[in-house]
Specification:
By secondary structure, the chain is α+β, with helices and mostly antiparallel strands. Helix content is 52%, strand content 16%.
Length: 477
């Protein structure tokens, strides 16, 4: 069997491992502190409307604040305030919405050329929950007029004290911060990708370890995850740049899930890995996750283009089916991954250097997953999969820290893996000394460590002669 290209991981001491983790946490903490000091993500503007019994059935004419492309998206939400605060109430309310865009000459053409009727659930427990009336995924006009009519409010048994409408948009300052940080991560990822490819240039691709092969795939996908085309969303008034960003993010995240499956299984299966038995089950499970996530995003985007009032609750049956399907596939993936981790740790825990690869990847990935779960919980709370969650995701941001922490976490995770999986400066020279007993354990491939090596039957050679041969080859290059 062909020897694997050496990894820097094999040459690191305990002090170096501690330093790697310290640098990872310092870089991640720096992005979090920058995000905490950064601007709020969502900018709100409240339009309070006082009610009396004669105005309940009349439409509310609401004008949005002036908008620019840096506002990215627009939400209109409302909160119904009852005169009694300890009321438990759930009632379907019909809302009629008409959206008009204001152009420069003062005219107000229809958006989508129609009036929209939607049923929303009014849920009150001490206070009523927020209802999303309109969500515009991209802005074609600098201002919008929205007419809202509630059809069933007069049928309530409780007196309505007030209805508070709130406009929500992205903070233009945050949009500029997002552009700059995405640009910084794109540049850093490009540099790391080039350095990683340069470190492996003297080794044949068939000699790369499975981690090195996957890093050569994940780093370009991380470049897409950071989205070098993101500024197009501020130059083109279209839904396409936003959908492209969603596709890039889902593609990278699902590739990362596939990387974990392949590494924890592939580290046990040495030699040829058959496509049918090794890759196909993994591609099937992760492919279903990717298909479900992309379908949810495209489904919401396409429907909102035709109807700004669309939410998943309108199509409850299909959405509930999609949500159950997603949860079943996600649980299948988790069980499959846990099975592979347990098998790998139980079979390879006593193998020199192979267990080191397992321990490092498992430790770093565990840290990243724990931080990710904490970020998701702080961002969405316990209602990550509520019925209209896609339209509400972005409105749960409180500050830039939540955005920068997640982007920084995944970027620094891949940078750390690229560092430890890349060959060291003297890797090629050390690989020439494979026959020297002093270097044999350090540079043996995984197959040699597990199954033994044919080199053990060969006579020892003079290390000095090998050094001379290496210098001659270096001079000829």
């Amino acid at each position: 069997m062909e020897p694997l290209a050496p990894m820097r991981l094999y040459t690191l001491s305990k002090r170096h491992f501690v330093l790697v983790f310290v640098v990872f946490f310092v870089c991640f903490g720096l992005t979090v502190f920058i995000g905490i000091a950064g601007p709020n993500v969502i900018e709100t503007s409240v339009a309070r409307t006082d009610l009396n019994n004669s105005l309940k059935l009349k439409p509310f004419n609401l004008s949005s604040p002036p908008l620019s492309t840096y506002n990215q998206q627009l939400w209109l939400t409302c909160v119904v305030e009852l005169d009694q605060h300890d009321v438990s109430l759930k009632k379907n309310v019909t809302i009629t919405v008409k959206v008009l865009g204001v152009v420069k000459d003062g005219s107000t053409p229809y958006v989508n050329n129609q009036v929209h009727n939607r049923t929303r659930l009014l849920s009150c427990a001490q206070k009523c929950s927020e209802i999303i009336v309109v969500h515009l995924g991209y802005l074609n006009y600098t201002q919008y007029n929205v007419f809202v009519t509630f059809e069933d409010l007069n049928k309530l048994t409780y007196t309505i004290q007030n209805i508070t409408f709130t406009w929500k948009t992205y903070n233009p300052t945050f949009s500029q911060v997002e552009i700059w940080f995405r640009f910084v991560f794109v540049v850093l990822t490009f540099m790391v990708t080039c350095l990683f490819a340069h470190s492996l240039r003297k080794f044949s691709m068939r000699d790369w370890g499975i981690e090195q092969k996957w890093m050569s795939i994940l780093l370009p996908l991380l470049l897409l995850y950071n989205d070098p085309f993101f500024p197009l969303s501020f130059l083109v008034n279209s839904w396409f740049p936003g959908m492209l960003d969603d596709i890039f993010q889902s593609l990278f995240l699902c590739s990362l899930l596939l990387f974990w499956l392949c590494v924890y299984h592939g580290i046990r299966v040495q030699g040829e890995r058959k496509c049918l038995t090794f890759y196909l089950p993994k591609f099937f499970v992760v492919g279903l996750l990717w298909l479900a996530s992309v379908t949810l995003g495209i489904w919401q985007t396409v429907n909102e283009v035709h109807d700004p009032t669309y939410q998943y609750r309108v199509d409850t049956g299909n959405f509930q089916g999609m949500k159950i399907f997603f949860l079943v596939v996600a649980n299948t993936y988790i069980l499959y991954l846990l099975f592979l981790i347990v098998r790998a740790c139980s079979e390879l825990r006593n193998m020199p250097y192979v267990d080191l690869r397992l321990k490092f990847l498992t430790a770093l990935t565990f840290v990243v997953l724990v931080i990710s779960i904490v970020i998701l919980y702080l961002r969405f709370g316990a209602q990550v999969l509520q019925d209209n969650f896609v339209a509400e995701l972005s409105t749960h941001y409180q500050n830039s820290a939540e955005f920068l922490s997640f982007y920084g976490l995944l970027n620094f995770y891949l940078y750390t893996l690229a560092f430890v999986y890349s060959p060291s400066k003297n890797a090629l020279y050390e690989s020439q000394l494979k026959d020297n007993p002093a270097f044999s354990m350090l540079n043996d491939s995984d197959d040699d460590v597990i199954y033994g090596s044919d080199y053990e039957e060969m006579p020892l050679q003079n290390g000095q002669a090998i050094r001379a041969k290496y210098k001659e080859e270096s001079d000829s290059d």
